[in-house]
Amino acid sequence: MWDYTPIVKDHFLNPRNVGDIPDADAVGEVGSLACGDALKLYLKLDDNKDKIVDAKFQTFGCASAIASSSALTEMVKGKTLDEALAVSNQDIADFLGGLPEEKMHCSVMGQEALEVAIFKYRGMDIPQHDSEHDHGHAYPDYEGELVCKCFGITDAFLKKVIETNSLTTAEQVTNFTKAGGACGSCIPKIKELIAQVLGESAAKPRTRPEKLSNMKKMQLIQEVLERDIRPLLWADGGDLELIDIDGSRVQVAFRKACAGCASSGNTARMVEMKLRDLVAEDIVVEEVTQ
Amino acid sequence: MKEIYLDNNATTKVDEAVFEEMRPYFCELYGNPSSMHFFGGQVQSKVNEARNRVAGLLGASPDEIIFTACGTESDNAAIRSALEVLPDRKHIITSRVEHPAVLTQCRNLRQRGYRVSEIGVDGAGRLDMEELKATVDDDTAIVSLMWANNETGVIFPVEEAAAIAKSKGALFHSDAVQAIGKIPINMTDSLIDMLSLSGHKLHAPKGIGVLFVRRGTAFRPLLVGGHQEKSRRAGTENAAAIIALGKACQLAAEFMEAENSVVKAQRNRLQDALMAAIPHARINGDGAERLPNTTSIAFEFVEGEAILLLLSEFGICASSGSACTSGSLEPSHVLRAMGVPFTCAHGSIRFSLSRFTTDEEIDKVIRELPPIIARLRQMSPFGREHLKGQS
Ligand SMILES: Cc1ncc(COP(=O)(O)O)c(C=O)c1O
Ligand code: FES
Predict the structure, then answer these.
(1) Fold of A154-203
(2) Which residues in B have their CB inside 8 Å of a CB on A?
(3) ipTM
(4) pLDDT of B44 above 70
(5) Which of A117, B87, B215, B384 is most buried by its number of CB atoms within 10 A?
(6) DSSP string of B115-164?
(7) Which pTM was predicted?
C-alpha cells in the first residue's frame, strides 16, 4: 500500500471542485486513457480576465492523481494568471503534505494541465510534434523530439521537469514523468538529457573569487564538488568521495561505476578543471584508491 | 473495521486447525529433525507425516516431495535443475503470462545465452497450443507452464502440454501454486516431471513451499550443504511450517468439493451481479476454463488503484492489474498478453475467494462497488464522454 498523507487521502476521498465549467475561459488537457492517467482542467476568469475565480477538474487516474487535481484547483482559485503560472509541481506536492516519490508524476501532470490551459488562453501556441508512438500523447502540447515512445514524452518537456525539480537520476525522471517506466529503451536518452541539463546549469556564469582564505577555499571546494561535480557522475552511475584537502591539493576517491573505471584518470582531470574554474587556478586533484 | 478478504490469490488466512497443528513445534517440540536423540526424532516423525499428507493431496509418493522455502524457490530450483541435467540443450519454453517467479528467472537466463520462447495466449487467456507444438524442439531443455493463472484464474491444459514437451525429450515443470487446493490434481498417471506449490495460498503460513520431482527424474539441487531432503534441498527443515502445510493439504482435500460448489457459486453470483449492475465492464478470461475462486473484471474509464482504495474504505480487500498498484507504470503483463485494451486494463480488479468467504461479504461487495465505479466515472473525463445518457 502506498503511504499517502492524511491530506492526500482527504483530497482523494472528498475531492474539491470536480466537474466542468461550460463557459470556461481556459481549458487544459493532459494525459490519456492508454497512459493510465489524464486530467482536464477548467478555469473561469474574472471580468478583467486576470484573476481565476473558479476552477474545476475531471481526472482519470489513481488516488494521488485525483488528490493532486483537487489540490491544484484549490490552490489556483483567487490567483492571477501570472501567480498561477508560478505554481510548481513541488508546490502541489507540498500542499498535499508530500507525495511518494513514485507518484510525483501526478503533481507534474497537474502543473502541466495548468500551464497548458493558461498558454492556450493567452494564444501562446505550443506547436504539436507529430511523431507517432504507441498510445496517445501524454503531454500533447509540448514540442520537441519524442524521447519516450511508450508514454509520448518529448525532450523539451523532460528537460523542463529535470531542471525545475533538480533531478539527477533516470529513476527520478521516471517517477516524475513516467518516461522510462515501460520498455525502458529511452533510459539512455534520459541520462543524456540529465547530463545536458546539469551541464547547462553548471555552465551558467559563475566567477572565480579573487582571493580566498584557506578556510573559505576548503568550503568552496566542497560546495563545488557537491553541487557541480557529483551530480554529473551520478548521471552515469558513478560517484566520488572527498578524502582530504591540503592547501591546493584535493584528494578524491571514485566510487560505484567510476571506481576501477579505465577512464577515471580523465574524470579526475575533469574534476580538476572544474575546481580550477570555480575555486582557484592552482588546484591539483589526486585520485586515491581506498 | 472487520476485513472482507477477497484477495486469497495474494495470500490466505492460516486455518485455525493448521495453526494448532504447528503451535507445539516452536517452544516445546523444537528439536532438529535430523538429530539422533528422541527429541529430534519426534519432530522427524511429524515431518514424515506431513510429507505423506502433501503427497496424498498430489497423488504422489512421499519421496517425490521436496520441501522448500516458497513457491518462488520451487520454480527457480525446477528450471535451474533442468538446465543442469540436460546441459546440451539451450532452449527454455514458458508463457507470456507466468508469475515473475518463472518469468524473471527465464529472462535472466536469456541474458546468459539461453534461448527463451514465451508462448502467447488468446483474448480469453488460453494458451496457444499450436505455437507450443511448433516451438518445442530437440534443443528444448524445459517447458515451464503454470497450471492456473494468478490474475485471471485461467487454467492451462498442462497434461497436454507435458505430452508435447516429452515428445521432444524435454522436461516439463508446472507452477501449480494457484491450482493446488482449488482444483483436483493427480500426479499418479501424469507426464509432469516437476510441480511447484506454496503453502500460503492454501491456508498454511508464508515461507513454505514444495517442489514435486517425479521418481526417476534427474534433479540437481539449488541449495547445497547438509543432507536434508535427501540432499535435494540443504538447510534445516522449517519443521513447524512443514507440519502446518501437511495439515493444510489434508484440509484442502476435505474442502475440495466445497471449493468447486459453494465457493464457485459465490464467485459466480458476485461476477453476475456486478456485470448486471455496471455497464462497460468485462470479465478477463471469460469463456476459458477458470479456477472456481477467481474473477478478474475490467471496468472501463476508471483506474484500479482508486477503486481499491475506495473499496478499502468499506473494509473490502481485492487487488488490481493496474499500473499504479503493480509498482511498474504499465498495466499487468498478463492482461496485456491477452490483448486487453489499455482502456480496460487500468481498471481491472481481481476478487479471489476462499472457503472462509461468506454470502454476506459477497452481498456487501455487490452493494458497494457499483456506486464506487459510478462515482469515479463521474470524475473521469473519459467516463463522462462515453457514458452520456447512462447512469
Ligand atoms: C502463480 C504463482 N507462482 C508463484 C508464486 C510465488 O509464491 P511464493 O510467494 O511462495 O514465493 C505465486 C504467489 O505469489 C503465484 O501466484
Ligand atoms: S520508450 Fe520510454 S519507456 Fe518505452
Answers:
(1) Arc Repressor Mutant, subunit A (1.10.10)
(2) 301-306, 309-310, 313, 322-324, 327-331, 342-343, 346, 378-384
(3) 0.88
(4) yes
(5) A117
(6) EEEEE-B-TT--B-HHHHHHH--TTEEEEE--SB-TTT-BBP-HHHHHHH
(7) 0.82
